[in-house]
Amino acid sequence: MQPAHFKFVLRTSAKDRRDLGRIYLRIISYYKVKYISVGRSLHQRFWNKKRGQVRRNHPDSAEINEYLQNFLTIVQDKYRRGQFDAASVGKYSLEPDLISFLDTIISDRNRAEQFRTRQKYVTLRNRLIEFQKTNRIPFDTINKSFIREFDSFLQLECDNGTNTRIKYLDQLRRTINLGIEEGLLFAQPFPKLKMRKEETEKLRLSMDQIERLRQYTPPANSPRYHAKNMFLLSFFIGGSRFEDTLLLEWHHLRGGNIHFIMGKTGKQYRIRLIPEALEIIERYAYRRGEYKYLFPVMPEHVTREDIVRFKKTVNCRNVLINKQLAAIALDLGIERFTFHCARHSIADYLRLRKVDLYTISKVLRHSNIRTTEIYLKKYDQESVSAEFAKAFVKEHQETMSEH
Fold it and tell me: Burial letters for 173-203: b for 16+ Cβ neighbours within 10 Å, e otherwise?
């Protein structure tokens, strides 16, 4: 076996889509140079070129450097035992397994504060571990059979519907594409699965049900009381999303309008407060000046300084409010609904009032009018069906009157 020199290098010429350089183990043996991807990416300012390791000012420097050292130990051990040489090193699967790679992606999304995307990878990771009953899935085991078996597991063991299975498989496909970018795989192993998304009903409340909800009187300051008011305010200000409604502050209300930055898109939004919305806000007038938030649901001491805790708290409050809305639906004897149903409800209400599609799109803060069309497509089909049936009823009645 020829003597070899090992060193980790950051190749900025091979930046990924996040503008991060990729870490490789460089092996020089007998005037030949080979590089092995270690499945990690890093910004150049965090890399110590001389030492071949991550600088201490990176928040995960200790964890990444330990990972690199373990990786190096495995390579050197295999090299000493003659299991490969520098000329054929690229043929060996020394890169991290799928779960480790997902952990890296999750960590990257966490630092980038991409919490919605992060949660999708967390959910996929947990489901894969449940599927394989292990937290190590080598990349060389991921083939068409693996993916088909995973799909069957989702359908038979998890009882997931077609749309949920498509979401899992799409997320797995994205993960594998990232792995290909990192040099961990050389081809996309996905089979041509023929799966068509099923039409799902976008539940909404009718104006009659909205009025029943307004008349509903839970105990003052109870969880159901706040859930009811939050839902109705969302409806009456154009279907604001849960996070935006939860985090409404008193300074957002000025000049008869409500102004806020949308959490999902970061865009400014303003809409005039109608009497129904002002009536709900007035119920919380006692909080003005003393408390930050309009609704007493989000803890005041949880701030964006600890962004991970902040986002988790928002998600927990979403779950709690939806549980209260489910209890309210039971009390009213109507179909169970969630907070997001306020957006569907206002969209349908405006459609029935013949408001044009462009205006509805702006009220809902959709960046693309196509999204609004998808929102209303199902409701339009129901209206067409009803008008069609009504036409024949009228025709039948006219025929009967002639006789």
Answer: eebbebbeebbbbeeebbeeeeeeeeeeebe
Residue 399 lies in a domain: no
Is residue 6 classed as helix, strand or coil in its secondary structure? strand
Q: Please answer whether residues 150 and 128 qualify as being in contact, where contact means their C-beta atoms are separated by less than 8 angstroms.
A: yes
Cα distance between residue 80 and residue 73, in whole Å: 11
CA 113 from chain center: how many Å?
12
Between CA 285 and CA 271 the distance in angstroms is 20
Whole-prediction pTM = 0.63
Q: Which two tokens stand for residue 290?
A: 């003393």
My answer on whether 79 and 105 are in the same domain is: no
Question: Which helix (DSSP H) or strand (DSSP E) does residue 390 occupy?
Answer: helix 369-402
Q: Is the pLDDT of residue 116 over 50?
A: yes
Give 103-145 as a DSSP string: HHHHHHHHHTT-HHHHHHHHHHHHHHHHHHTSS---GGG-SHH
Structure tokens at 218: 């839970």
Encoded amino acid at 6, one letter: F
Give tens-digit pLDDT for 211-227. Answer: 999 999 999 999 999 99
8 A C-beta contact, residue 205 and residue 352: no
Q: What angle do CA 268, 225, 223 make, to 5 degrees?
A: 95
More confident residue, 25 or 17: 25
Note down the domain range covering 29.
Answer: 1-94
Among 338, 333, 131, which Cα is nearest to 227's?
338
Q: Mark 317-336 as b/e (b = at least 16 C-beta within 10 Å).
A: bbeebbebbeebbeeeeeee
What are the pLDDT digits (tens) for 178-217? 887 766 666 777 776 666 666 666 788 999 999 999 999 9
User: For the residues of 55-120, what is the DSSP string, one character each?
Assistant: -TTSTTHHHHHHHHHHHHHHHHHHHHTTS--TTTGGGS--S--HHHHHHHHHHHHHHTT-HHHHHH
Are residues 132 and 88 part of one domain? no
Same domain, 213 and 328: yes
Please tell me the total count of domains within the chain: 3
Distance CA 187, CA 181 (A): 10
219 lies in the same domain as 307? yes
What residues contact 31, with CB distance under 8 A and at least 6 apart?
none
- Quote the CA–CA distance of 390 and 386 in Å, as a whole number: 6
Six-digit token pair at 191? 């089979």
Model confidence at 338: pLDDT above 70? yes
Q: Residue 338, exposed/middle/buried by CB under 10 A (0-12, 13-18, 19+)? A: middle
